[in-house]
Amino acid sequence: MLSKDFFDLYNTIASKFSEILEDESLFFGQVNAEDGALISFLQTLDRDGIDTPKIVAMYDTSSQRSLDMADLDDAEMYEGTGPWMITLSKDDIAKKLSDVADDTCLFFNSECFLSFLECLEPFHKDNHTYDRRTRLFLVNGLDQPIGGENFYAIGTNSSFPDVETKLPSSDDVHNLVHVNTTESVRVCPRSISLSSAGSKLDNLPNLKRSIAKLLAVCLVQELKTVDGIEKVTVKGSKKQIAVLSNGTEKISNGLLDELNKAVIWVYEERSETRLQLIMDRLSLDMNDSDSYLESLGKYLERALEQAKDSYAFVILDRKDDYHKEVRDLIKDMRTQADLYATKTRSLVSSLARDTLGILVFLSFSFMARAQRIDIETLLTNNAMTLILSVMSVYLFVSITLQILVHMRDDCLTQQENTHWLKVLQNYTRTDDQQQNFLKPIEKRRKTFHFATLVIALLYLGLILIVCNLQSILTTVLSPSL
Predict the structure, then answer these.
(1) Where are the domains of the chain?
(2) 340-358 confidence digits (pLDDT tens)
(3) Residue 41: which H helix or E strand, with range?
(4) Which listed site, 84, 231, 232, 304, has its alpha carbon 20 to 30 Å from 142?
C-alpha cells in the first residue's frame, strides 16, 4: 500500500529528528545534523509530488536561511549549518495517499498523537461536526485502535472498522440538557469516545476524564459555567448542584463503560422519563462535597439498575394515562368535527333565511301592487330606495359578523387542539399525532373554509341584487310599462 510505503520511508529517517511536534495538519521536526538519508527522503517527497517540504537552516544563533529543494543538490549551500527545522503539510500528503479515506488526519509519531488526545477539549463548539461525519486518524506506530463512534484512530497496518452509532447526537442532548454559559459550548458524546477495543489506556488520564465529563453532562438537567468552573444541576427527588470535575478523580474503565451504557439507555427512547428516573436516585445518594464524576463513580451503577427496574412500572402507568388521554382527546376531536359541520350548516341556514326574507319583502312590495301605476311608483320611489339600501347594509353586516365570529372560533379551536396534543407528546410520535388527530380535523376545516367562501360570494351577489333591485326591475319590465 502507498500509505505503508510512505511510512516505511519515514521510519528509516525518524531517528534523525531530535524533536518532533505535530498537530492535525502540520508536522514540525528538528534535525541536528543532516545526512544523505534525510535529504533523499525530502527529495522523494518533492519528486513524487506529495509535498514540498519547508526547510529553515540555522547558521548561527542569530541567523537562519530557508533552503529550497535545489539547494539540497549542492552540499556547499548547507555545509556548516546548524539544526534544520523541517515543516511538512500532512493534509497535502494525505490527499496523495490513494488508500486513505478523505479527510483522514495523519500522525507520523504515536507519542505526538497521544499528546494531541490529552489536549482535546470535550465541550468545543466544533464538536457538532461529529454528528455529520466521522473523524479518522492514521497514526504511525499506534499498536492498538483508539476511539469509537465518530472518532477513531488506527495504526498504519490496520483498517478502519464499521462502528455502529449508539450514542446520541448533540441535538438530542441539547434538547434535554439546558446549557447556561456565555461561552460557545457543544455537548456531543460522539466527538470523543472509547470502544471496548481501545479503553485500556491508563496512560491517557486526561482523555479518559474528558470522555467521562462529556458523558456525565448527558446525564444532568443543566450545565452551567461559573468563572471557568463547570457545574451541573441534578433535579430529582431533591435538587443538587455539584462541580462536574475537580480534576483529581481517577477515571476507571468500569466507570466509562457504565457511563456509556447509561447514556445509550437514556437516549434510546423516552429520554426525559428515563433521565428523570436516574436523577431521582442520584439526587438522593450524592454528597455535597463530591464532584459529579465522583458521585457517578459511586452510585451510577445502582441508579441505572433501579431506573431500569422502575421504568417498566412507569410505562404501565403512563400507558393507562395515555389511553385515558387518548379517549378524552378523541371525544374532543369528534366534538370539534361536529362543530365545523354545525358552522357550515349555520352559514347555509343564514343565507336561506335572508334570501327568503328578501323574497317575502318583494312579494309584499311588488306582487301585492300589480297595477301599473303602483309598480312605476315603487321603481322610482325614494323611500323604496332607502329601504333597499338598508336591507343591503343588513345583509353585509350579517355575513361580515358571521364570518368574523366563525373565523375567530376556528383560530381558537386550532390553538386548543395544539395545546391538547401536547399532553400526548411523551406518548406518541409527531407523525402519529398528525395522522390520527390533526389530518381528520383539517379536512373538516377545509370544507368549512370552502363553504364560507361560497356563502360569502352568494351573499355578495344578493347584496348587489338588492342594492340595484329598482334598476334591474326597470330594465326587465320596461317593455311592458
Answers:
(1) 1-90, 109-311, 318-478
(2) 778 778 878 887 888 887 7
(3) helix 36-47
(4) 84
